[in-house]
Design goal:
Largest sheet: 9 strands, antiparallel
Number of strands: 61
Shape: elongated
Number of helices: 6
Length: 825
């Protein structure tokens, strides 16, 4: 039976620099088992000879698993539901046959994404290792297919290189670390040619294996397996030119001595970057001391875990992965089964039962994380093997924002509302256009809100997207205030979205006079995203534009006026080759029906799917407001959308209309023309076909003595609900905050509103009644009181819909308004 050697663990990480450093602390002992694990794959993917999941990686929205099999390695992929064989199912001797066509290739020891291809480093005990790449369709040999003795020959030209236990991407090149009994090697690849970057075990031939790699700050770090039983493992760093020894160089017994001062630490079995530090896990070769975890801040090494997390049978910290909140470590333990430990920067917590309830699961060989989910691949060490497994658990709540800018005259905020009765930890990761990132960790008090001024965190002049991870559910909004092109002042707001998608829809869009339309795309994954813009226009039907790209771990901005051209009323279906997040900011000098020149901006987060019903709680046809509806039909057939307009109490009966929308087009409705002037009006839109609806509004707001021009826009809610939450609200000088409550039902709604303030915590609940089939408007400045930064929780005895428009004069004459639909809890 195969038992994984310590030299075969791999972890590839993306560097996230945090501005908060937490202090190491204590073990939390036996698990509270806060994490709810479920088995994602069992029985060796249906073949008990698949004894161990050796590597995991996400590529183009799918999870890939590389398995050890003595009859030739296998690769499987999962779309989140079902597993598909990628290598092993094909004919013998073909790239999709067992072992990529070579049954002597036993293991996929490492996986990483480079230049939008998935690379697999393999082990071949005799004859030299191989490297393969995958574009999502076909596998291509990168090392092993060339002539013997050449860099593309077996083993990079040296057949003693029989394994590739580590792969990493550093400064635009792919790096591969080998196992070699004459001293490990490191090879570098620029997409065309391989170059040897290190050899001979970094000058110590007992360094048999470059086991683990990670990129930290500006260097590539490599951890070794050292075959000298009296010495210990080493850590080396590389700046692209020179190798520097970081561990192993000083006297025995010191943190920078061999094995971090302990000769039993013979292997740096795992690496990850977390909380502004480099973390490494070790293998205890004595069998009686237990693994250790060390952290490095760029100057000093500190032991943050030892003794196998108080269980000496945890011999190896075999895998590591981190998000913005926590570090996760998987162990090798043949006594009671593998374990997973979580580190929050202060304390350690055990997060699973031994072996996930099966003692034969001896090792967490590899882990991978994407979004809110953590995946762990195991090895089966049972006397009668039943095959490897993959386990998964949700480790955080995640929200994304694609848009963000801190350039001249732009002010960006994040408003975090915590409706829970316990404090929430939140990691804010800023992702920039050049692929770099910055993480900040904050605490959001229970039943309160927390405000972040993004300009202060990231500096001026940044195009920035956000990934927000939290320990418990929070709701987040991103208001921005601006003077666009130093000409049009205003503001807009958007609610964070909880998942990425390959498809995003937008009903509204205009590239005519006085309008600049943009699409902002966040690509948080490791694979470049190729974009296709499918516009549904009122002028020409569907117009398709292709050939646009957002690099991995980056964001991009696309001006629709340039892509589509001027003068189009358009909707958009955005298609991406990899999962992304998309928003649509628009900036305008709105002329409207009477040469208005109302200037400002609005923004919406797209939706990944269409619906058949949409609710809009807000809407008015009073003087100074021009309200529109835009209906998107990306289908190949014409559809009809029915509308029911619900005015405020005492403003008349509901009005019913029907609108035909041609195939591949959009349709625009001017609401005052449908219901008349001087109405406060909600609307319900419905169709037997799937469609999308938005409600742009442009205004000169004159409430309570103000005179502020602007505009706002929202995508309708697909549902009415009894519980709603909103993160943003402000009742200080220059801000007017409102709540619009729509009751589409047949019973009166009794609504309780709790304001969670940043200044005083929750205020006593207030109640309002909304008659059946009407809407009601609440002026929050009066209802809650002045000078609060606040979030909102609304509960109702029957389903309602909630929006929160705000009007403002921000800073130096940046006037306007923004609006969001609430988050249904």
């Amino acid at each position: 039976m195969f038992v994984k050697r310590p030299s075969m663990t791999v972890l590839v990480v993306v560097l996230l620099v945090s501005v908060v450093v937490l202090i190491p602390g204590l073990y939390a002992g036996e698990p509270a088992l806060a994490l709810d694990w479920s088995r994602a794959a069992a029985g060796g993917f249906g073949d008990a000879d698949n004894a161990g999941v050796q590597s995991l990686a996400f590529f183009s929205g799918r999870l890939y698993a590389g398995a050890y099999n003595r009859g030739g390695c296998r690769v499987w992929s999962c779309d989140g539901t079902a597993w598909t064989p990628e290598v092993g199912q094909g004919e013998a001797g073909t790239p999709t046959g067992p072992g990529f066509g070579d049954p002597g290739t036993e293991s996929v020891s490492s996986l990483v994404v480079y230049n939008s291809r998935l690379y697999a480093g393999t082990r071949r005990s005799a004859g030299g290792c191989r490297v393969w790449s995958y574009d999502g369709t076909a596998w291509t040999p990168e090392v092993g297919q060339g002539e013997a003795g050449t860099p593309t020959g077996p083993g990079f030209g040296d057949v003693q290189n029989n394994d590739v236990p580590s792969l990493a991407v550093y400064r635009g090149r792919l790096y591969a670390g080998t196992y070699n009994a004459g001293g490990c090697q490191v090879w570098s690849y620029d997409g065309t040619a391989w170059t040897r970057a290190g050899e001979g075990g970094f000058g110590d031939p007992d360094n048999f294996s470059a086991v683990s790699m990670a990129v930290y700050v500006s260097s590539l770090y490599v951890g070794t397996f050292n075959n000298d039983y009296t010495s210990g493992c080493q850590v080396w760093s590389y700046d692209g030119t020179t190798w520097t020894q970081e561990v192993g160089k000083e006297a025995a017994g010191t943190p920078t001595g061999p094995g971090f001062g302990d000769s039993n630490n013979r292997t740096v079995s795992s690496m990850a970057v977390y909380n502004a530090g480099l973390y490494v896990g070790t293998y205890d070769s004595s069998g009686g001391g237990g693994c250790q975890v060390w952290s490095y801040d760029g100057a000093n090494w500190t032991r943050v875990a030892g003794g196998g997390f108080s269980d000496k049978h945890n011999l190896t910290a075999s895998s590591m992965v981190a998000n913005g909140l926590d570090l996760y470590v998987g162990t090798y333990n043949e006594n009671s089964g593998c374990e997973v430990w979580r580190y929050d920067g202060g304390d350690w917590y055990r997060e699973n039962t031994g072996g996930f309830g099966y003692k034969r699961n001896s090792t967490v060989n590899c882990m991978a994380m994407e979004g809110a989910w953590l995946y762990a691949g195991t090895e089966d060490a049972g006397s009668t093997p039943t095959g490897c497994e993959v386990w998964k658990t949700r480790v955080s709540e995640v929200l994304y924002f694609a848009e963000g800018y801190t350039g001249a005259s732009f002010h960006e905020y994040l408003c975090l509302g915590n409706p829970q009765a316990v404090d929430a930890r939140a990691a804010i990761t800023y992702l920039f256009r050049d692929g770099t990132a910055l993480t900040r960790v904050v605490k959001v008090p229970a039943e309160s809100r927390f405000t972040v001024y993004v300009n202060a965190d990231v500096g001026e002049g940044k195009e920035v997207s956000v990934k927000l991870e939290s320990s418990s559910p929070v709701v987040a909004e991103r208001p921005m205030y601006f003077t666009y092109n130093r000409t049009w002042s205003g503001g807009h707001d958007a609610m964070g979205v909880s998942s990425t998608s390959n498809t995003w829809y937008f009903a509204e869009g205009y590239t005519g006079q006085g309008f600049d339309e943009w699409i902002c795309v966040l690509n948080p994954g490791a694979t470049d995203a190729m974009l296709t813009f499918r516009f549904q226009t009122e002028e020409e039907g569907e117009v398709v534009r292709t050939g646009y790209n957002v690099p991995a771990c980056s964001r991009g901005s696309f001006k629709v006026n340039d892509i589509l051209g001027g003068g189009y009323q358009n909707s958009l279906k955005l298609e991406s080759s990899s999962p992304v997040v998309a928003e649509r900011p628009m900036y305008f000098d709105y002329l409207g029906t009477g040469n208005r020149h109302w200037q400002g901006g609005h923004c919406v987060m797209g939706v990944p799917g269409l619906g058949q019903v949409y609710y809009f709680a807000e809407g008015t046809t009073r003087a100074g407001f021009e309200e529109w509806l835009t209906l998107q039909n990306p289908n190949r057939m014409a559809i009809t959308v029915g509308a029911t307009y619900q005015p405020g109490a005492g403003q008349g009966d509901p009005v019913n209309k029907a609108y035909p929308v041609a195939a591949g087009e959009r349709y625009t409705v001017y609401v005052p023309g449908e219901v008349g002037e001087d109405k406060d009006v909600s609307v319900t839109l419905a169709s037997t076909a799937f469609f999308l609806a938005e409600r742009p509004m442009y205004f000169l707001y004159t409430g309570y003595g103000a005179s502020w021009p602007g505009g706002d826009c929202v995508i309708g809610s697909k549902c009415a609900d009894t519980e709603w939450f909103l993160a943003e609200g402000y009742t200080g000088p220059g801000f007017h905050t409102w709540l619009c409550l729509q009751n589409p039902g047949i019973d009166e709604a009794n609504v309780s509103i709790t304001y969670y303030t940043q200044e005083k915590g929750p205020l006593p609940a207030r109640t309002v009644e909304v008659p059946a089939g009407t809407r009601k408007t609440v002026f929050v400045n009066d209802h809650a009181g002045p000078d609060y930064q606040l979030s909102f929780r609304l509960t109702s005895n029957c389903p309602i819909v909630v929006e929160r428009p705000m009007y403002f004069n921000y800073g130096v004459n940046q006037q306007g308004g923004h609006d969001v639909v609430g988050y249904p809890e």
